[in-house]
Amino acid sequence: MVSVNTSSAAISAVNTLRGIDQRFISSSKRIETGYRVADSGDDASIFSVAQGVRAEVKTAASIQSSLSQAQNTTQVALAGLRQLYDLTNDIRANIILLADGATAESARATIKSDTQALLRQIDSVRNTSTYNSFAQLSATAQARSFIADSAGNSITVGIFDGQTELDALNAAVDNIDTSASALVALDANDAFQRQVNLSTAELASTAKSIAEKSNFVGSLVDALSKGLGALVDTDIADALAVRQSAIVQRGLSVASLDFINTANRRIVNILR
């Protein structure tokens, strides 16, 4: 039937054109944003799931940052402890010379002065082994806790607690005037070195635990990010193909609509 009031062919062509335009707009949005689901208007259920995954990614990233801080703090402390151990070895060598009766008297004052200088270096190392303004080896050091998981559990980086032994070592070195007093200082140095070794072992164990947790959280962030991408990311090749197809279909649809309108104009001319 041909009607002057209603053109079924034109309505159908317009609806087809509207659908093609929608596909073109949708595919263009996917290409421009990089997301297949950029907002709730694209797919409400998937967008809701994606928002939950994004929250998990942010949480895991924050935990990873906290563990990174813990790792750096521990590594700085361990570097300081290694330096302390080397210094105690140098001090031990000097004390042995002071305990040796064959050491010339003219050299004793120099050796003792050098030993006292090494002790001052110990204080310097303890005070400068800092990360983010915190010194884990200083006399006023405090243990620090870092968030380790999404449940709020934490991991604690301990301190070097050898002040008593260091004070005893300083006093013993200052009192060296005979071989016997040098041997007392030697025992004090060994006691301090044992504390250094004990703290090194404890911090090394903590560092290993932190590294394991950090590796796990890093893997978790990667897995969550991949899952999020699978949910919402655009397949660029597919989106480009859809848009190109929509461009071609739009041209054909416009041509079809123009053909229908031309036919209708002929009918109107005949009626005139």
Overview of the molecule:
The chain is mainly α. It is 76% helix and 4% strand. It has a two-stranded antiparallel sheet with strand order 1-2. Strands 3-4 form a two-stranded antiparallel sheet. The longest helix has 56 residues, at 44-99.
Could you name the CATH topology of the largest domain? f41 fragment of flagellin, N-terminal domain
Rg, alpha carbons: 39 Å
CATH superfamily of the largest domain: f41 fragment of flagellin, N-terminal domain
Q: Work out the helix count.
A: 6
Count of extended strands:
4
Strands in their spatial order, largest beta sheet: 1-2
Q: How do the helices and strands follow one another from N- to C-terminus?
A: HHHEEEEHHH
Blueprint of the fold:
Layout: H1 8-33, H2 44-99, H3 105-128, E1 130-131, E2 134-135, E3 144-147, E4 154-157, H4 163-174, H5 179-232, H6 236-271
Antiparallel strand pairs: 1-2, 3-4
Summarize the structure.
This protein is 76% helix and 4% strand. The protein is mainly alpha-helical.
Give me some keywords for this one.
272 residues, mainly alpha, f41 fragment of flagellin, N-terminal domain, 2 domains, two-stranded antiparallel sheet, 6 helices, 4 strands, 76% helix
